[in-house]
């Protein structure tokens, strides 16, 4: 369901409770609102909010908080993860359950100063596909955004003693693209778009890690798609390490984003539009939500 900024009304009860939010709900939808503040309790405008469906790992909506620190949305019923991030502050992740016809009470999220995260242990880290998502968002010409993801991929991170010398590689099965519409997916696999019979894989190989401060990095590398290679930079937020998962193995997490220009990869949307083919627009937002497991002799094999 499309998301818009909704009407907000602040009111205080006689007991001095915090602000309440009035949300006009579309049919078969629920609503929620967050108030995001900085470590001093001041409204945090411009914080990035990403809402992901827990069952499909699909991004349901995303945006930024308004100048008063609010983010308000309506969503179909279901369970969601909400990631809130701002430069120099630690990310916050909240889970929520949306029910039709219900507007959840507003929640205040206080972002804290980013702690110096311990960098991953040097060695090989393998992507855990069930806990990793490769997603994209494209603007459909004349219509709403198209959300999709790739379901089959493999890759890993070779962490060097000097993090700047580390290396990432990802291989994506291009035919595993899915947008929730079989006709559209078949068209995206065709010669008009990805041409998966001739170019079955999409590959990214990093060339260097550049530290931007705090938990922010840029992964410079080469993306090869549709038989064409281009240099790109993945804006990456490192989320730290933890012992957990199948056998309490050591794992790390990161969120990486990039904007791709389709014509860089000889996918000529203007030509297809002139031929009457309904297409998505000239740019695509790519997002990798990664968990990787530290490789040892007894690292568990992720389930299919």
Automatic annotation (TrEMBL):
Biased segments, Basic residues type: 1-12
Segments passing through the bilayer: none
Region (Disordered): 1-24
Domain Lipid/polyisoprenoid-binding YceI-like as annotated: residue spans: 124-293
Gene3D superfamilies, sorted: Carboxypeptidase-like, regulatory domain, Lipid/polyisoprenoid-binding, YceI-like
Pfam families: CarboxypepD_reg, YceI
PANTHER family hit by this protein: PROTEIN YCEI (PTHR34406:SF1)
Recorded family membership: Belongs to the UPF0312 family.
Protein name, as recorded: YceI family protein
Organism: Streptomyces viridiviolaceus
């Amino acid at each position: 369901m499309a998301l818009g900024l909704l009407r907000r009304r602040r009111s205080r009860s006689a007991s001095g409770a915090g602000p309440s939010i009035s949300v006009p709900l579309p049919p078969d939808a629920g609503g929620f609102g967050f108030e995001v503040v900085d470590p001093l309790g001041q409204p945090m405008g411009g914080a990035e909010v990403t809402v992901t469906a827990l069952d499909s790992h699909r991004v349901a909506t995303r945006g930024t908080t308004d100048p008063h620190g609010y983010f308000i949305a309506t969503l179909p019923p279901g369970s969601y993860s909400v990631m809130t991030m701002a430069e120099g502050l630690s990310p916050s992740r909240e889970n929520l359950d949306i029910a039709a016809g219900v507007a959840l009470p507003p929640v205040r999220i206080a972002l804290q100063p980013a702690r110096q995260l311990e960098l991953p242990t040097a060695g090989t880290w393998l992507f855990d596909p069930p806990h990793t998502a490769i997603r994209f968002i494209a603007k459909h010409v004349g219509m709403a955004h198209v959300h999709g993801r790739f379901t089959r991929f493999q890759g890993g991170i070779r962490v060097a003693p000097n993090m700047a010398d580390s290396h990432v590689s990802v291989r994506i099965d291009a035919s595993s693209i899915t947008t929730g519409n079989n006709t559209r997916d078949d068209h995206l696999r065709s010669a008009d778009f990805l041409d998966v019979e001739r170019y079955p894989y999409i590959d990214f190989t990093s060339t260097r890690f550049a530290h931007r401060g705090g938990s922010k990095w840029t992964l410079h590398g080469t993306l090869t798609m549709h038989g064409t290679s281009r240099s790109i930079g993945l804006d990456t937020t490192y989320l730290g390490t933890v012992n957990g998962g199948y056998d309490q193995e050591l794992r790390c997490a990161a969120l990486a984003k990039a904007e791709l220009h389709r014509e860089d990869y000889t996918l000529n949307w203007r030509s297809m539009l002139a031929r009457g083919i309904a297409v998505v627009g000239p740019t695509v937002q790519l997002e990798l939500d990664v968990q990787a497991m530290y490789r040892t002799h007894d690292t568990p094999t992720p389930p299919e």
